[in-house]
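In response to reviewer comment 3 from the previous cycle, which asked for concrete evidence that the modeling workflow produces usable outputs, we include below a single protein chain processed end to end. The sequence was submitted unchanged, and the resulting structure tokens are shown without manual editing.
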Amino acid sequence: MHRIPRYCSLDGFTELSSSLEGVVLRSLAPFDTVCARTLNTNYYIFILEPETGKALVQGGRYFSEPIEATVSGSTFGGCMLKMGWLGIGFRIEFYSGGQRIVTSPVQTIRIEHGDD
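The workflow returned the following structure tokens.
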């Protein structure tokens, strides 16, 4: 029988969420930049509206130039999404041009503050 990893269930994710490394978008200020290195790409997410996830995103094949997108949050790649949060080991989910775009797993996250 195929077993689903515990962290992929809602109960398991809830247990793990307090120990996960990541960033809450609402904790950022407008003009902060999230630099996220995924397994395949570097993404630069220039935050416009932290509350809504509105941002300019550059990186990967879908964002070769800065494009306005909504940063939805993090996912394991399935249907469960942690809204407004980007986490190490998770995939970032964007919404742009009527399309859902999901990255490869995040390896590192670094924040550059707009006032630096």
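The first helix runs from residue 10 to 16. We consider this sufficient to address the reviewer's concern, and the full set will be provided in the supplementary archive.
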